[in-house]
Amino acid sequence: MLKMERVIFTTLCSAFFFTNCVSGDYPKAQNVSWLSINFKTLLMWDPKPTNYSYTVEYSVIGQNRKKNQHCIRTMETECDLSNSLVDLKAIYSADVLSEPLRGVNSDLIEFPHTTSERFTPYEDTLIGRPEFKIEVSKDKRKITLYVEDPLTALFNKQNQQRTIRDVFADELQYKVTFGKATSTGKKTKISASSEIELDRRDVDPGVSYCFNVQAYIPSRSTDKQLGELSQRQCSPGDDKSVFEEYGIGVIATFILLIIMIIVVAIGVTVVCCKRRRNANRSGKEGVPLRSV
């Protein structure tokens, strides 16, 4: 009887072990990358897991790794680390570990993992497109752009959402690209202020101009200095004459084209008339004279 009980106990333990303990490797995460806009920072990877899960560990380079509580044995393929990367100027790296599902054990001592590229929020986050309003002065000699500093995913101690101006302070500038609404020519202007004035040195009075604005942070590496381009907006302009609207060159070309069409039409008409006259003469010469 005691021997039978041992057999049953061993069988149950073995069943429990094979049900709740998995051996072997798990697929490594692929394409691990950072996606960060206005300090909303996601770590992303592939593929979608099936019979396993992922855990994300992150750290400042050279320090101990930590786990994000929302990214432990998850079935998702992204992890929001916006609130975890507290020191915006620090250099971070992250590991995506492939692990068994929740409630399942494994005999592996170290799980397969993939390490991300290094990431510094202050240097690497993309600045999103800003919104702005246009105001034309009464004398129409000045156009002012009022740029709204984009909000970030960060909050201060009073739980107020911070803007990119709060983060970058004096390092933040704006680049304005503009030109006449009726022209393809472009000008640029850099402003340290969110209130950008363009006067007679930049714009002609009463003329409609179109604008694009983007954040500009010159302290960054060249490929990350400019933020996302805003939507195009145009200022109102006075009613223009035909010459102002289309330009003398376009109108001159149009007039020349009309003259050419008239000349060609006259030429065709003259040729047709000559042929008809010649045909009539030939017809009369071929008729015999009547006898008297």
From TrEMBL:
Query: A GO biological process this protein is involved in?
Result: blood coagulation
Hey, what's the signal peptide range on this chain? 1-24
Could you tell me which SUPFAM superfamilies the record lists for this protein? Fibronectin type III
Is Cell division there in the keyword field?
no
What GO molecular function terms would the record report?
Answer: cytokine receptor activity
Q: Which residues form the Interferon/interleukin receptor domain?
A: 125-234
Topology versus the membrane, per the UniProt entry?
Single-pass type I membrane protein
Q: Which UniProt keywords apply?
A: Blood coagulation, Disulfide bond, Glycoprotein, Hemostasis, Lipoprotein, Membrane, Palmitate, Signal, Transmembrane, Transmembrane helix
Q: Would you tell me the Gene Ontology cellular component terms?
A: plasma membrane
Q: Where in the cell is it found?
A: Membrane
Give the similarity note: Belongs to the tissue factor family.
Q: How does it assemble?
A: Interacts with HSPE; the interaction, inhibited by heparin, promotes the generation of activated factor X and activates coagulation in the presence of activated factor VII.
Protein name, entry field: Tissue factor
Give the gene symbol.
Answer: F3
